[in-house]
Design goal:
four-stranded antiparallel β-sheet, elongated
Amino acid sequence: QVQLVESGGGLVQAGGSLRLSCALSTRIFSILVMGWYRQAPGKQRELVAGITSGDMTNYASSVEGRFTISRDFAKNTVYLQMNSLKPEDTAVYYCTADLLVAGTSRRYWGQGTQVTVSS
């Protein structure tokens, strides 16, 4: 069974930092991409950042320069370092893993971790 276990969320003041971690439970399937999405109350879920197995990264424009995604695929883990946090970063953050399953890409989601930034 594929599971993604997130940690590191919490409450922080504006300008502060948090580091999210996400561990993938299985090594059976090849990792294509891992990433982070977020969903704020009343808003659609949006991509925050992604990283490929070849270390290519992409970021939402709203977090570029403040957030950094990194990975340790040997540990099946992806990280999101969030600096200079703003109240508008408040959301539930979800980890994703796109895995190669039976020749096709399949996306798995974590359960989400709450990040709250106070002003």
